[in-house]
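Work Package 3 committed the consortium to producing structural models of liganded targets before the mid-term review. Because experimental data for this complex are still outstanding, the team generated a predictive model from sequence and the ligand definition alone, so that downstream docking and mutagenesis planning could proceed in parallel. The input record is reproduced below exactly as it was submitted to the modelling pipeline, together with the SMILES string for zinc ion.
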Amino acid sequence: MADQLDLSTIPVIDSHCHPFDPARDEGDFRLHFSLSMWEPLLELTTNTVFSFKAIRELGKFLGCTSKDFDDISKERDRQYRDDPKEYIQKLFRSVNLETLILDTGFPHEEFLGYSVDLDYFSKLVPCKIYPICRIEPIIYKIFKKFPKTFDEARDFFDNEIEKAVKVDKVIAFKSIIAYATGLEIKKWSDKEARDAYNRFIRKPLQDYTKIPPGPDEKILRDYFVVMTLLMCREHDIPMQFHTGMGGAPTLDLRKANPILMQDILAVDEIKETKVVLTHAGFPYCEETAMMTSCYPNLYCDVSAISNFMGTSMKSAMLKIFEFAPVNRVLFGTDGVIMPESYWIGVLQGVKGLEQALVELINEDWITENDAMKIAKLILNENAVKLYKLE
Ligand SMILES: [Zn+2]
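The resulting structure, written out as tokens with the ligand in place, is given here.
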């Protein structure tokens, strides 16, 4: 009987996370252990099993003599704010985190009032970094200004995504359309999109983020997503989609099940684009895994499960292994805002992967050799190949 595998020598590629700025670290960092879009409450965020584990592990990492969570939190603030770079480097190196693939659309000045400069960020972390372009800030600019005609809006969008590929050298695109109008994306004709645009801009300007999106907004968002999928196909780069759980109540989980993408992924011009279902559609991991086994260009990553849903990582991996080809599964943390979220995501995420593989060895589905091969694919090699990393 195997009871553990040593995965610690595999350099980890975090295929979905975000840049952060230590200068913005204020307040109690444990407030960020939450997916709520409302003001988080410390009384809730410090009372989850995930939080207990994260703080206890952090106490060990910091060499804290006290076991008291408030003391550990204070010691963390002292060390991090004293020398952010040193703290980040130590934390990331301790889990062999080698590469970060960054969704630069969050934090973003259009949503949070600031973006993180990647040159600055690259000097803080002991990792190779690669940018991904999230398309929603571009769509937001269009919906804020409304160019006079649909053709101008479409040209603006087209120029921005082309610039992202050619100038910013992004290695992928990303959409969070699941948060806005849902994953049941359709391919609309130019005429349908033009008519929708003309109806949409005639309405009095209102805060569209506060009112539920109507059918015209859906047509336009679908249209821009399809434009991006086609751009990805042209340049042979992947497109990530937010799928599954996310910040409630903004995200309607019923519209975020990746199974809703069946039709769009089967469209002739689109089916050759490489698509990544991020967060493995959690809690719809079985659906995600089933789809990756049917669509040859479909991938999934376990970002956010490894982190916020730490206790679910082993069972999520086992569900994914029920169907998904192991060369279509990637690791990620969805680390954001604070360095601990990447660190605990790798620490617990790799542990969960290990536990799932050990169970499969013990039930004689795979050998120890197979397990090591699978771990290398998921933690490193699949991302190198899919995103064409050096
Ligand atoms: Zn993310």
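Reviewers should note the following from the model. The chain has one domain: 12-187+224-386. These observations will guide the Year 2 experiments.
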